[in-house]
Write a structure and sequence with these properties.
This protein has 85 residues and is an alpha+beta fold. The chain has a domain at 32-81. 29% of the residues lie in helices and 14% in strands. The protein has two helices and two strands; from the N terminus they run αββα. The protein has helices at 20-26, 64-81; strands spanning 34-39, 42-47. A two-stranded antiparallel ribbon has the order 1-2. A hairpin with a 2-residue loop joins strand 1 (34-39) and strand 2 (42-47). The termini are far apart. 1% of the residues are buried. The model has no long low-confidence stretch (mean pLDDT 76).
Length: 85
């Protein structure tokens, strides 16, 4: 198998777990931010190196910034639900 290709399972809630060696290789840590882009039947997941609020429009494809902002907001809201009050 190519070192850049990994098979992962989708659980009953639609979640995927990234393999440890991939997280370690590109520096993904718990509570880290990722950007997911969908093109046809392909998911492209990239590490967010900074907040999407810091991105300049010229750095992103049309529509991706809005999607990334919505994704970041949903992730933040989901994380707050799991936090003890």
């Amino acid at each position: 198998m190519n070192s850049n290709v990994e098979n992962v399972d989708v659980d009953e809630k639609g979640n995927i777990a990234l393999p440890y060696k991939i997280c370690e290789k590109i520096g993904i840590h718990p509570q880290g931010k990722l950007i997911i882009v969908v093109e046809d039947e392909t998911l492209v997941i990239s590490k967010q190196k900074r907040s999407v609020f810091d991105l300049q429009p010229k750095e992103v494809v049309t529509g991706i910034l809005k999607q990334a902002l919505i994704f970041e907001q949903k992730m933040d809201q989901a994380g707050k639900k799991d936090m003890p009050i």
